[in-house]
């Protein structure tokens, strides 16, 4: 039997700390999410001391920003330890500093939401204004991730130094690509938070350049979704083949897909602003074209996955185009949960293509269709992949095993998630097409809307939300069991091996300066003129330098 490689004890503790924050966030956010659907469907009314939008802000921030960021860094640290060896003391220290800064930032931002000083939703669009402490909390969260990200990059550099002339482990390569994407993306949100929101919320300046702040936010916002997606792709490319009992279909194709994400994730933010004035249509058009280009690495990933499934199926004797389907390990939650995530990404991705299409965007923008879209993509594809991986990584770190019973309950939990999401997200998509607005407490219009034809959809969302909360409770129960009560033993952290008699990877693929350079070139091309335009033509009343 091959030696089982483990995440070291100290690195395991580091990852587990990240996962705990992530799990607490998902539990709270799930509860808030259900309450929102109950309010929207008029099944309950909130007590006077809670505002609907306060709840919506907490739900969005905890799910989209906190759960994802903490889970991702916990996963990256564990995977780096597993594939490049125990983190050096310095790198582990950096990661712990990152963790504590992120946690302090989270607590500060959450506190501001709880006391009603930051009811600005997770996108914190101006002119909605929060307490400066909320923005400082967000800034701390981001600064923390810089320490964590540097730990990953330094660990990768150390491996390369110790292994001259060798190709880096695929996990480490992808982890660095994810961190690079995050670093370049956060430049936008850091600029807007530091130079626009903080001075404005302290009252040092009276106004804020709304167009510019939204543009800087979406410059960050779209690569943010790929920051969520890439770790899920890491699981699909690297871990699933091992779980299936086959090899990685193509190492170089996987790396190329990640490089394409680095190049193409950034110059596309305008597809979130297609309906906004103040941006020239020509630039919107260019960014829409680039959005269609960033679909390509996902199509490559779909291709690689089908190839992996087929390779395994054929090895087990399957025949015909879809014969492999029956040969997949349907009783293994480590496979089933991410697989449901992949299935959800077929309509999720198609929805994204609809969103990006200018004319169709006019129909769905600011409707609850968009909420349906991201509950399929981040809420199912990414979340179920993370859930699947946590069923193996938590016992691995804790020196316990995923028991048969926990495995079957995990499958029920994943299926419940899928059913809940199908109902909720389906209702969101359909009623969005009928014009049901997003981010709106329906009853606040005066009760006419339920009569206007969305009422049944809102109730369906509440039913879906209830099933989802049951699934989350089961998930958290299982995780507590796997972390503290499951039998002691060794659970594998599966890392796939290469299928091809690999050609040596061209050196340029590990030359990050080239890729970051091209990415910066594309960013400057897509954003320079529109941003200069926004600053020069800021509305009357803005101070001399029209950044505000
Ligand atoms: Fe999106 C809005 C366009 C992907 C998340 N998106 C959002 C928002 C979020 C979000 C959170 O163009 C809302 C932001 C807000 O609050 O306002 N999105 C896209 C496009 C893609 C896309 C073109 N989005 C994602 C991902 C997300 C995410 C991924 C999170 C993780 N999105 C938009 C646009 C808007 C938008 C507009 C703005 C709308 C508006 O007007 O406000 C693409 O990346 C999608 C490409 C994906 C594919 C699918 C590939 C399929 C795979 C699975 C294969 C399955 C297998 C299993 C192998 C082409 C890889 C098969 C087995 C069998 C048995 C069949």
Quick summary:
The chain contains 15 helices and no strands. The protein is mainly α and 548 residues long.
- The whole-angstrom Rg is 23 Å
CA(first)-CA(last) distance: 64 Å
Largest sheet: none
How many β strands by DSSP?
0
Which class do the helix and strand fractions yield? mainly alpha
Q: How many H/I helical runs?
A: 15
Give structural notes.
With 548 residues, the protein is an all-alpha fold. The chain is built from 15 helices and no strands. The longest helix is centred in the last third of the chain and has 38 residues, at 448-485. The protein is globular and about 65 Å long. The termini are far apart. The structure holds heme-as (HAS). Heme-as (HAS) binds next to helix 6, helix 9, helix 10 and helix 12.
Explain the layout of strands and helices.
Blueprint: H1 9-40, H2 52-84, H3 89-114, H4 132-162, H5 170-202, H6 210-244, H7 251-264, H8 281-293, H9 296-315, H10 333-356, H11 358-364, H12 368-398, H13 404-433, H14 448-485, H15 512-536
């Amino acid at each position: 039997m091959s030696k089982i490689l483990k995440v070291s004890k100290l690195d395991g503790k580091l990852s587990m700390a990240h996962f705990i924050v992530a799990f607490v966030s998902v539990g709270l956010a799930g509860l808030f999410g259900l309450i929102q659907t109950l309010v929207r469907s008029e099944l309950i009314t909130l007590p006077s001391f809670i505002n609907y939008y306060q709840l919506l802000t907490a739900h969005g921030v905890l799910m989209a920003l906190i759960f994802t960021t903490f889970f991702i860094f916990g996963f990256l640290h564990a995977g780096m330890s597993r594939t490049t060896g125990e983190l050096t003391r310095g790198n582990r220290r950096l990661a712990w500093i990152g963790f504590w800064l992120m946690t302090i930032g989270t607590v500060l931002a959450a506190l501001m939401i709880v006391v009603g000083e930051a009811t600005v939703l997770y996108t914190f669009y101006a002119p909605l204004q929060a307490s400066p402490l909320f923005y400082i909390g967000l800034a701390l969260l981001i600064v923390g991730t810089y320490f964590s990200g540097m730990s990953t990059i330094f660990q990768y550099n150390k491996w390369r130094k110790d292994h001259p002339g060798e190709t880096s482990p695929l996990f480490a390569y992808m982890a660095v690509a994810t961190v690079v994407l995050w670093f370049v993306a956060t430049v936008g949100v850091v600029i807007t938070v530091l130079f626009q929101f903080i001075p404005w919320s302290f009252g040092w300046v009276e106004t804020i350049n709304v167009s510019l702040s939204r543009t800087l936010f979406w410059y960050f916002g779209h690569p943010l979704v790929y920051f969520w997606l890439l770790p899920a792709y890491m699981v699909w490319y690297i871990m699933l083949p091992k779980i299936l009992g086959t090899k990685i279909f193509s190492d170089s194709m996987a790396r190329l897909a990640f490089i394409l994400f680095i190049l193409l994730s950034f110059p596309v933010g305008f597809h979130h602003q297609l309906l906004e004035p103040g941006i020239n249509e020509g630039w919107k058009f260019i960014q829409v074209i680039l959005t269609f280009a960033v679909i390509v690495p996902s199509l490559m990933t779909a291709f690689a996955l089908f190839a992996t499934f087929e390779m395994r199926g054929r090895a087990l004797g399957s025949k015909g185009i879809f014969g492999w389907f029956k040969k997949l390990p349907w009783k293994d939650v480590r496979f089933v949960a991410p697989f449901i995530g992949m299935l959800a990404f077929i309509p999720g991705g198609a929805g994204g293509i609809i969103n990006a299409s200018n004319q169709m965007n006019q129909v769905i923008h600011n409707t609850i269709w968009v909420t349906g879209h991201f509950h399929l993509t981040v809420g199912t594809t990414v979340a179920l992949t993370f859930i699947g991986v946590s069923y193996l990584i938590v016992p691995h770190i804790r020196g316990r095993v995923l028991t048969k019973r926990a495995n079957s309950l995990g499958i029920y939990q994943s299926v419940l998630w899928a059913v809940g999401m199908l109902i909720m997200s389906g209702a969101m998509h359909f009623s969005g097409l009928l014009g049901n607005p997003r981010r709106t407490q329906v009853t606040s219009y005066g009760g006419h809307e339920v009569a206007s034809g969305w009422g049944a959809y809102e109730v369906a969302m509440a039913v879906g939300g209830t099933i989802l909360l049951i699934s989350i409770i089961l998930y958290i129960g299982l995780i507590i069991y796997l972390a503290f009560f499951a039998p002691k033993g060794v659970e594998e952290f599966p890392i796939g091996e290469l299928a091809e008699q690999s050609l040596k990877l061209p050196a340029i693929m590990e030359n990050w300066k080239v890729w970051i350079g091209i990415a910066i070139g594309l960013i400057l091309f897509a954003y320079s003129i529109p941003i200069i335009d926004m600053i020069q033509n800021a509305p009357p009343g803005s101070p001399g330098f029209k950044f505000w």
